[in-house]
Q: What sequence folds into this?
């Protein structure tokens, strides 16, 4: 059973605020990902990590940043939120490379910026 | 050019019918292929994976892979209304990054 947790599940904030979306997994997976998905639209990879101290930008240009100080934790930060950041953010993890396409997703964080 | 292509649908089938979902990919060296199901408002969940040419069956689901033609399909037998969801195809391309590429998904509606 997948054990990957995201907080907060829902967040409504004003423009210009700094926010951090938390993602934690207890499976010991090295690879972790952040995806952005608007309702009814496709997944867009915004960040990923191969392991501790490894972070990479994904296909979608994003003003967010990530860090990977511990294996289990992969937070995403927006320094100054804007209405264009309103979206669903999904965190995922996977284990060793030969099974890298088997992603376990968290329940998501739905962000609304007013 | 999109690397993983899916018809966005919706694909509408009657209850009890076979639903056939298709996916094509551009990277001929791709080695592993995945199907995810995503209910509205929920996160994707993995339902099938296939690594070798041919068919792989799991309950009512069958994944089919044809590397020569660069397509992978998902068949759902005895479709139920609870199968109504968006089905995402994901492919791990060659090149060593092991980052899966997702298609935009096909919406399936199973009507009673």
A:
């Amino acid at each position: 059973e997948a054990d990957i947790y995201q907080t907060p599940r829902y967040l409504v904030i004003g423009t210009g605020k700094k926010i951090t979306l938390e993602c934690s997994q207890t499976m010991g997976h090295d690879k972790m990902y952040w995806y952005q998905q608007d309702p009814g639209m496709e997944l867009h990879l915004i960040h990923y990590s191969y392991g501790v101290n490894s972070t990479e930008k994904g296909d979608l240009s994003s003003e967010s940043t990530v860090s990977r100080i511990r294996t289990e934790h992969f937070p995403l930060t927006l320094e100054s939120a804007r209405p264009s950041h309103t979206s669903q953010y999904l965190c995922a993890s996977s284990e060793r490379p030969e099974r890298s396409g088997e992603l376990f997703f968290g329940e998501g964080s739905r962000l609304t910026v007013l | 050019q999109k690397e993983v292509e899916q018809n966005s649908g919706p694909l509408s089938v009657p209850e009890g019918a076979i639903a056939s979902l298709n996916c094509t990919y551009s990277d001929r060296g791709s080695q592993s292929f995945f199907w995810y199901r995503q209910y509205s408002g929920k996160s994707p969940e993995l339902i099938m994976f296939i690594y070798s040419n041919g068919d792989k069956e799991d309950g009512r689901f069958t994944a089919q892979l044809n590397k020569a033609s660069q397509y992978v399909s998902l068949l759902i037998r005895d479709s139920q209304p609870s199968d109504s969801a968006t089905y995402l195809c994901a492919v791990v391309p060659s090149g060593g990054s092991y980052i899966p590429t997702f298609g935009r998904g096909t919406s399936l509606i199973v009507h009673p």
